[in-house]
Every structure is written in C-alpha cells, then in structure tokens.
Amino acid sequence: TMPKEPAVLRQNILDTTAAILACGIDPKKCFLFRQSLVSEHAELAWILGCLTNVPRLLRLPQWKMKRASQNSEGTVGLLTYPVLQAADILLYKSTRVPVGEDQVLHLELAQDIAQHFNKKYGEFFPVPKAILSEL
Which residues of 23-52 are buried (b: 16+ CB within 10 A; e: fewer)? Predict the structure, then answer.
C-alpha cells in the first residue's frame, strides 16, 4: 500500500523467495509463485470489493492505526487491502488459514464476504476458518 522503488521491490521479491527456500520449503512439494503474476487475485479483489461496504472497512482497527501512523487521510489501497487479502484466501477456496491475532478481523471479513457471495450467487466459496498459533 506504500509506493516502493522498482529496484527495491524486485530485490525484496528475490530476498523473500530466498528466505522461503532457506526455511526448507521444497518447491517439488508445493507451489511457489509470485502472486503479482496471477491476475485473478486482482480480478477477484475487484469483484469482492463491489460486494463490500465502505463503512465495514472504515471500522477495521488496522485501517485506523495505519492511517494515523501515515499522518494522512489514507489511500484507497490501504482501505481496500483487506478485500485483496480476502481474494487471496478465497481464490484458492481455502478452508483453513494460519493467522496471527492481528489478522483475525481481516479473516472475519473474508468469512463475511464468502457468506455474502454464496448467499447472492450460490455456494461457491468455502467459509475459511482461522488457525491461530500460540506463538
């Protein structure tokens, strides 16, 4: 949600990929891909954004905190980021999602969006459940 220098962003992508592989993720056993190359994430986020009301997003504590820390009114990208997160989860029809306590409300938004979509268009998305770690 914050502008980045293209060279820095490219290096961050490489560094993150290296860190994932260094942690022992085996690309022969799982899919490792650059999400930004999968246009369906943005496409589904647009569709889900058309089903999500603004007052709900404005109530999310992360929006309020980040907006305050940026000393600004906030950006559309920051406001709608939880909808993109919901699209990231729902696109793959995820049923269980590992989240930290700070992301529980975003997962609840994804659950609500899935239920709203299913009610309007028929059962399509599973309603994802949180996997909370004690760490």
Answer: eeeeeeeeeeeeeeeeeebeebbeebbeeb
Please check whether the domain covering 35-132 is classified as CATH 3.40.50.620. Answer: yes
For residue 5, is pLDDT > 80? Answer: yes
Residue 61 in contact with residue 105, Cβ under 8 Å? yes
Closest CA to 74 of 58, 85, 56: 58
pTM of the predicted model as reported, rounded to 2 decimal places: 0.86
What are the extents of the domains in the chain? 1-32, 35-132
Q: CA–CA separation, 98 vs 33, rounded Å?
A: 19
**Interval 41-51: pLDDT, tens:** 999 999 999 99
Q: Estimate to the nearest angstrom the gap between the alpha carbon of 29 and the chain centroid.
A: 23
